Amino acid sequence: MPSVYQCQLKRIIAAAPANLPRTDALQQRIKIGVGFQNKWYRSQKEHWLGWIVFQEFSAREKRREVSEILAKERWAGLHCIPMMFWLAETVGIDAHMLDVAEKEAETESLKKSCDCPQHGKAMRRLLPWEKIEAELTTMPESSQKAADNAGMEAFARLASLRSKYRSLLG
Asked: N or C: which end of the chain has fewer CB within 10 A?
């Protein structure tokens, strides 16, 4: 199976719906994500897009070629349960796998009520990248221009609400 790169992941996310029923319900149950802990984003889609653009800025600062970054690297660094769950729901991961991940999300959120490395580790164990990636390859994509615009819009929102990111906008 061919690898999915970050730029393709951004195009897929840009083409996806912002709100999904299971993710929205999960956020309400675990009190993490949209509407909690003063988060800057209004949807997990916006969260993904803003975060990917931030990662692109970081890669350029390190003189890395953005087009060569594997999406798997992004997945490996996540700590946000709803962000990870949203992508799994977006790509149509099997309902049973989502059920198991939801139960684990509820358990993990009781241990720690904010994003943390343990949350990401738990979700990656139940929603392995290989399953996500296999489904990603079947998803519709927006154009690169539309994805870049959506990403910059999301990042601009982040920067408008979190001053430490403003300098990246130039």
From this structure: C
pLDDT at 34: 97
**Cα–Cα distance measured from residue 165 to residue 159, given in angstroms and rounded to the nearest whole number:** 5
- DSSP assigned state of 5: B
- Residues in CB range of 83: below 8 A, 6 or more apart: 33, 44, 47, 48, 51
The confidence score (pLDDT) of residue 170 equals 76
Q: Read off the pTM.
A: 0.96
On the 0-12 / 13-18 / 19+ scale of CB atoms within 10 A, 27 is: buried
User: How does pLDDT run across 107-116, given as a tens digit for each residue?
Assistant: 999 999 999 9
Q: With contact defined as beta carbons under 8 Å apart, do 149 and 50 qualify?
A: no
**DSSP-assigned letters across all residues of 51-84:** HHHHHHHHHHHTT--GGG-BHHHHHHT---HHHH
Cα 101 to Cα 63: distance, rounded to the nearest angstrom: 36
Q: Are 26 and 99 in contact (CB under 8 A)?
A: no
